[in-house]
Amino acid sequence: MVAKLDDMPGHLVRRFHQITVAIFHAEMAKLDSDITPVQYAVLATVLENEGIDQATLAGLIAYDRTTIGGVIDRLVQRNWLVREVNGNDRRAHSLRGTVEAKQIIDRIAPGVERAQQVMLQGLAHDEASELMRLLGRAVTAANDLSRAPLRSKPER
Questions:
Q1: Looking at residues 35-58, what average pLDDT do you find?
Q2: Per-chain mean pLDDT for the chain
Q3: pLDDT band at 93 (very low <50, low <70, confident <90, very high)
Q4: 3-class secondary structure, 97
Q5: Is 78:33 a contact under the CB 8 Å cutoff?
Q6: 138 is a domain residue
Q7: Which residues contact 115 (CB under 8 A, 6 or more apart)?
Q8: Domain count along the chain
Q9: What gap in Å lies between CA 12 and CA 16, rounded to an integer?
Q10: 103 is in which domain, residue-wise?
Q11: DSSP annotation of 88
Q12: Domain assignment present for 139
């Protein structure tokens, strides 16, 4: 007997991801912004970690190291990020957010928050908390099986 798709966590997580991305884009469109969820994650993380290198950034947002470069290129082209040669390793680049990036993040913050609420609108508050707790546990347990595992910020 073949399992029903609705009984498969991978299928439901994929569908929920599709829905969450659509919700994020809809909220950004209301604010006349075309920023993507990944671009938001990059900008928010760089603004919190000025001078971060590309590989560390990829680890902090659990994004594939080989494709993060394209995201960064687009953000540099939009004048939201500055890429500079790292003073400690000339082969590496440090990333810095621009004034425009900070303004964009501040402007869209209410929409990002609304998106999170819409994503969980079908759940009571305690159910939403429980879902987040369980998703966190499942993600943590399987983190090292990912092609782009989440990594903590290295000690300086």
A1: 96
A2: 93
A3: confident
A4: strand
A5: no
A6: no
A7: 20, 23, 24, 26, 27
A8: 1
A9: 6
A10: 5-128
A11: S
A12: no
